Amino acid sequence: MRSAKVGQSALWWEFVAQFVFQGASALALDAKGRLVVPARHREVLAALAQGQLTLTKHPQGCLLVFPRPSWEGFRDKIAALPMHAVGWKRIFLGNAMDVEIDASSRVLVSPELRAAAGLAKDVLLLGMGSHFELWDAERYAAHEAEVMQQGLPDVLQDFSF
Question: What is the domain-level CATH number for residue 54?
């Protein structure tokens, strides 16, 4: 019986290690600035990061939301940047906030980060592979429309759909 449990555990961790966050979730911040983590991501975030996340600014006006292990890899890359990139270090590292998913599956987004990303009530959580982006819903719609108007970049011209 023990070897079956060990085998199941190994399979679970293999799945978690290869998990990619994707898709959009329309959500609402409550009056205190808390966000309910979508049910489809809770189990993986609990296993992958013990419910620990890190939020920071994104240069395009949203927030980056990392499970803690993904954040640590990103943080190390940013910290290793040369001195002429110190301004970007400040943006990413200086604004990073560690948070935990609470017993009600909520995450508190600090007032400073909410203001930086223009988050009021209606938000969009986008899975971006190893992390998420958190956008004000209207700001994201405008951003997406702008991207769509630009047409496909050269790197996607020969991409097969």
Answer: 3.40.1550.20
Burial (Cβ within 10 Å: 0-12, 13-18, ≥19) of residue 1: exposed
Residue 71 maps to a domain: yes
- Where b means 16+ CB within 10 Å and e means fewer, 124-141 reads bbbbeebbbbbbbbebbe
Number of domains in the chain: 1
Is the pTM for the entire model greater than 0.70?
Answer: yes
DSSP three-state, residue 100: strand
Residue 106 binned pLDDT confidence (cut-offs 50, 70, 90)? very high
- 160 or 55: which leads in pLDDT: 55
Beta bridge partners of 136: 123
Q: Give tens-digit pLDDT for 50-78.
A: 999 999 999 999 999 999 999 999 999 99
In a domain, 50, yes or no: yes
Task: For residue 4, tell me if it sits in a domain.
Answer: no
Compute how many other C-beta atoms are within 10 angstroms of the C-beta atom of residue 156. 9
Residue 159 CB contacts under 8 Å (≥ 6 apart), including other chains: 152
